[in-house]
Amino acid sequence: MPTQKKRPLVVVTRKLPDPIETRMMELFDAKLNLADKPLSQAELIEAVKTADVLVPTLTDRIDGAVLAHAGPNFRLIANFGTGVDHIDLAAARQRGVTVTNTPGVLTEDTADMTMALILAVPRRLIEGANALRNSGGEWSGWSPTWMLGQRIWGKRLGIIGMGRIGQALARRAKAFGLSIHYHNRKRVHESVEQELEATYWESLDQMLARMDIISVNCPHTPATFHLLSARRLDLLQPHAYLVNTARGEVIDENALIRKLRKSEIAGAGLDVFEHEPSVNPKLLELKNVVLLPHMGSATLEGRVDMGEKVIINIKTFADGHAPPDRVIAGLL
Ligand code: DGY
Fold first, then answer.
1. Is residue 281 domain-shared with residue 316, that is, in the same domain?
2. Labelling 25: which of 86, 136, 173, 236 has CA 20 to 30 A away?
3. What does the alpha-carbon distance between residue 259 and residue 286 come to, in Å, rounded to a whole number?
């Protein structure tokens, strides 16, 4: 009789879309989190001690202290999400643990949300909606001088990070009449620059000083932590807007709050925060900001696509092959 291959023991740290959980149960010995209660550090340690695979999300801190307890079977972290800044990659590499993520499938959704913030902040969308809702049906009506925002068309957008999401944003922004500028570690291929009519700025400082709107679309890594430092934020023009749908840590949030409070920049649209899920109460007091609860990629389709990527990564790995979305290649 042929011997049955052992199904990997997979611990999933958060509730995932139903079809993904169903498929995981079919394919793996999956320990799901139906209650969606985030795991404590002790529970994460227990998971890496006993499981073959961990499926964490950005809300789990998989640091050296957790990975130090990795058991002999623990070989794969199949992250549900693209950003891997919550995982100590060096510790994973050192232990021969492979790390995968879910790139590509949340590009368009995140670019949509970034564009939505680029429209919402200068055009005072949330402020206007709230004013109407809070008027209790007694809105005084249209006025030539009420709720005036800033025009989007014809302005300069500076994109920090011209990867998939940056490019998807640029396509949208171009259709809204924004001229596209970008700063990136590497200049993108000239065919992309031509398509987007994008201007490359080698100097981030120089780009910041000349833009009307800045969008942060780069990952958070040690190199991008506080990339927008107090000094760099000071380079922004007083009429500039700042949008961030990447990671809060890329901006020195306290410095940003100081600038917003003094109206030294016009406003900000933030979907991510430096100390998530805590949000600095000073931000909540500000009028010239739109704050969202990290929902850039939050579509049903996107979450299912992410789950499918996770499953493919685990299945490929369990079958003895290199998974497609490797961030860190451990031992096969
Ligand atoms: C990711 O996948 O890193 C995103 O931030 C989730 O929205």
1. no
2. 86
3. 11
Q: How far apart are CA 94 and CA 328, in angstroms?
A: 10
Residue 65 falls inside a structural domain: yes
Range of the domain at 122: 107-291
* Number of structural domains the chain divides into: 2
Whole-model pTM? 0.96
From 62, 82, 100, give the residue whose CB has the most ligand 1 atoms within 8 Å, as the site to mutate: 82
Q: What is the DSSP string of 106-164?
A: THHHHHHHHHHHHHHTTTTHHHHHHHHHHTTT------TTSS-----TT-EEEEE--SH
Q: Is residue 316 part of a domain?
A: yes
**C-alpha of residue 310 to centroid of ligand 1, in Å:** 13
- CATH assignment at residue 161: 3.40.50.720
Catalytic pick among 21, 195, 276, 308: 276
